[in-house]
Amino acid sequence: MRSPDAAAPARLREEVAGLAGQARRDPSDLYGQLLRENVAGAIRSSFPAVARMAGKAVVVRAADAFVAAHPASRPQFHQIATEFVLFVQGQPVLPSALMPIIEYEWVLLQVEIDPAALSDDAAGSTDAAGPVTANPTLRVVMLPFDPALIDANDSLKPAPPRPHGVYRTREHHVLTRPLTVSDCLLLDRLEQEEAMTSRGLAEAVEPSLLPLVPDWIGQGLAKQLLVFADQKDTSR
């Protein structure tokens, strides 16, 4: 089945394109005003810390610049966040200090809407007898600031970059946890095989990590950083 856009008459497509072009060029145009307000609202909803730290005027100017440069006539709400991040990465519309924060908030959004889900079977169990795997929503990111301070401050002091794991729990909470070097090494080895038992992981890692494996798996299951392999579910 063809989409409605594909079946639209050429004249209608030209009129829509003309309307969108006028909206991009003229902020005072009624449709242009509505479009900019919608984009600014999407920015504030998707990136609340950035919007708060930047201030209303900066958000409005950023939305205006984004709309003026955006090629689509009808950008969908769920696409705006990703496209806006790509836009600001190439255009100096936000203070440079806010770039790591908007990229972090984009990761939070991606984890929140990730279609992967965890089943409730054996929820809360830390008996690591079976094969385990990383939480399917997990993203590992380097953050040059302390994310624990992001909600209580209007600015963040730079800090040495540190790895963090961002993931969603069975209760649909998005969590950010700092990771140690050992965490990263064990996660990397675990993800190479997709799923491993405690014994299998212990046999596969460097000798210096061997004593850490049992407690690491137990704590990972308790925090839902790890899940049992048979608890992964790709549907909500």
Automatic annotation (TrEMBL):
Reading the lineage from the top rank, the first entry is Bacteria
Q: Tell me the ranges covered by the Putative DNA-binding domain, including all copies.
A: 28-88
Pfam families listed in its UniProt record = DUF2063 (PF09836)
InterPro entries according to UniProt:
DUF2063, DUF2063_N_sf
Protein's name according to its UniProt entry = Putative DNA-binding domain-containing protein
